[in-house]
Amino acid sequence: MNPHTGTKTGMKPRDEPPTLDRVTFGNRLRTARKRFGWTLAQLAERSGVSITTISRAERGQLALGYENFTALGRALEMDMNAMFAGAGVKPAQLDGPVVTRSGKGVVYKGLSIAYEFLGTTAAGKQMSPIVGTVHARQIHGPEDFVRHGGEEFAYVLSGEIEVHFENGEVVHMARGDSLYFDSRLGHAYISVSRQLARIVGMTIGESGHMKSAREGEARSLPVPAASKPAKAPKHSAKASGKPGKAKGG
Question: What's the rounded Cα separation, in Å, for the pair 33 and 113?
Fold first, then answer.
């Protein structure tokens, strides 16, 4: 018996899941940015992520939250699987079943959740499944809320969580509970059980129904007054001797 590992002599220790550390992820991010020939400022403008955040992430000094790494992925036209695939693994098109064995997903420790990405060898898939360990214990401020296009699903495997929404709603969930919501609404997960909660999560791009509703809503909105062409005044200010006055001012 090995006193340090607790395993019997001659036995191999249990395989650990492949982990994508901050430095490796940062190198991938920098390589993708330079492939476009962009500066940090140009990537920041295209992604909406601050220059400081991108710079620190590229140097392996900062773990990104889901909202930021998905925004950077979209700007850099990087498939999520290319960002989080294991070392030396090049994702291929989904032309057959993709199996991820237990504990063999790629783990990335984000700001509030340690994500184990599943099915990372399939490029271009529409769903992003993960097993997450929620290590956040409290909401510190508005910056903790994540929002991104599409829809999100969460199922609690063990422990208990609270999902906080930016509109003030809080949903308490225990083992076996699930939640489905529009992920454009700011949301944040925290563990509220003694042990850190584990969840199965799934995100998917904006559905056809959501897109149609959003486009329909945009079409039904009245045209702002500022965008309408101004009518020529019947009498000039010079003729009346009085300055013109904006309507409703």
Answer: 25
